[in-house]
Specification:
Blueprint (H helix, E strand, L loop, with lengths): L1 H8 L5 E6 L1 H12 L4 E7 L8 H14 L2 H11 L2 H6 L1 H12 L3 H13 L3 H5 L5 E6 L7 H10 L3 E6 L6 H4 L1 H14 L9
Parallel strand pairs: 1-2, 2-3, 3-4
Length: 195
């Protein structure tokens, strides 16, 4: 609802909507509720269903008891490649700080939302052109999971970014931007989009 409010506020007719991880779930849900406002979708490192109720409940219980700090290193291992860990330690520390400094109620609420989101049937009804992107070393939404999302969406195309994990916009921004530009350029002319 907030995203739709922003689209309306800025007066965009149709958008090319790009969502990463939980943002990809939000993008799918917006399309499901308001397909006429979406010209195309770019779904990066996301899926129609991420994880299991048990895995999310375990994470929620852990952070409620011990805080986000105790899971941060494990999350960084699935979010970023070993090479990123070895060669870009300052950026890694910044991302880790961003994660651990989140408000606990917001983080738990997000975990609950991801746990409860099953967009399998909704994905089958996406008729907009869709680009699904995944890092070849993504440990949160592995390539096979993103491939299954692309397989559900009739108008989807899958691209795998080499040497990237869950956050390719940080690890391989040039590769990601190139894919996005090529996809947007391939959309039918005359349909002005913002996103």
């Amino acid at each position: 609802d907030d995203l739709l409010g922003l689209i309306d506020h800025f007066g965009f007719g149709k958008v090319v909507l790009c969502g990463l991880s939980v943002g990809g779930l939000i993008a799918q849900r917006l399309y499901n509720r308001h397909p006429k406002c979406v010209e195309a979708l770019i779904l990066s490192d996301t899926a129609h269903k991420i994880g299991t109720a048990e895995s999310w409940n375990t994470r929620i219980a852990t952070v409620e008891r011990d805080g986000i700090e105790v899971i941060a290193d494990g999350i960084m291992k699935v979010w970023f490649t070993p090479e990123f860990h070895a060669k870009r330690s300052a950026e890694l520390a910044g991302c880790r700080n961003m994660l651990t400094r989140q408000a606990l109620p917001g983080y738990i609420g997000t975990c609950m939302a991801v746990r409860d989101a099953d967009l399998t049937d909704a994905a089958r009804r996406i008729a907009a052109p869709t680009l699904c992107i995944v890092g070849d070393q993504d440990g949160s939404t592995p390539p096979d999971l993103v491939r299954s999302l692309a397989g559900l969406i009739p108008a989807a195309h899958l691209e795998v970014i080499r040497d990237a994990a869950h956050i390719p916009c940080i690890e391989q921004p040039d590769a990601l931007v190139s894919l996005i530009r090529d996809f947007v350029a391939s959309l039918p002319e005359g349909k002005s989009a913002h996103g």
